[in-house]
Design a protein that fits this description.
Layout lengths: L11 E2 L5 E2 L16 E2 L3 E2 L8 E4 L8 H14 L5 E4 L3 H7 L7 E2 L6 H5 L6 E2 L5 E5 L1 E4 L4 H14 L1 H10 L12 H5 L15 E2 L4
Parallel strand pairs: 1-4, 5-6, 6-10, 7-8, 9-11
Antiparallel strand pairs: 2-3, 9-10
Helix pairs in contact: 4-5
Length: about 210
């Protein structure tokens, strides 16, 4: 993307210290002994003006102390964003920030019951690879994050750009937002009724 479009990536955290992908001990199995480190470019206090905020998920989201700063930051910057995208249980951070109230959203299906308990005011959609409501794009489990990003790229930059990028990565996209075998796997389709009108409700801000 950066070869053809002017994009700046900011990695934002509470401090500039490297952030480990290993979850906090409070939510991490004892057998987990390794992780990578991501080096932030900005803190929550020094973050630049953002057009798009991408919120990842993972086990660390289950530790309230670990994500409180991210929740507060999300609530603060959302009004000035053009888009917000969540991956997996990153939707829980957005939900707890209050910005999903009254909106349709989805999340990781294996963690479904825990995730949706984070905010009753959200219209959680059980059967969806991703859901678009206004300028908020939420996706299901980890790999669905790839598909929601490609869908967003297609919406903003055009189908040709999304296809060229997917081909360069040798990635075969899921382009149907309702494709979700994991809702079946975890028995969610029997508990929730899929509303197809929730899938394509995005509006492109000026």
């Amino acid at each position: 993307m950066t070869h053809s479009h002017p994009i700046t990536l900011s990695i934002i955290a509470a401090t500039l210290d490297p952030v480990s992908t290993k979850p906090p001990a409070s939510v991490s199995p004892p057998s987990l002994t390794f992780g990578e480190s991501v080096v932030p470019t900005h803190t929550f206090e020094t973050a630049p003006q953002l057009d798009v905020l991408i919120i990842p998920g993972g086990r660390g989201v289950r530790d309230p102390d670990a994500v409180q700063g991210a929740i507060e930051f999300t609530a603060k910057v959302y009004p000035s964003l053009k888009y917000l995208v969540t991956v997996c249980t990153g939707s829980v951070i957005a939900a707890r920030a209050g910005i999903l109230d009254g909106k349709r959203a989805t999340t990781n299906k294996r963690s479904w019951d825990w995730a949706i308990s984070s905010r009753a005011e959200v219209a959680w959609v059980a059967r969806a690879r991703w859901v678009v409501d206004g300028n908020i794009w939420t996706s299901s489990g980890v790999s669905a994050g790839m598909d929601v990003i490609f869908a967003w790229i297609e919406e903003v930059y055009g189908e040709a750009t999304a296809k060229d990028l997917a081909d360069a990565l040798e990635y075969e996209r899921h382009t149907d937002a309702s494709w979700d075998p994991y809702a079946e796997m975890y028995g969610l389709s029997k508990r929730y009724v899929w509303d197809p009108t929730c899938m394509f409700s995005s509006q492109i801000p000026d």
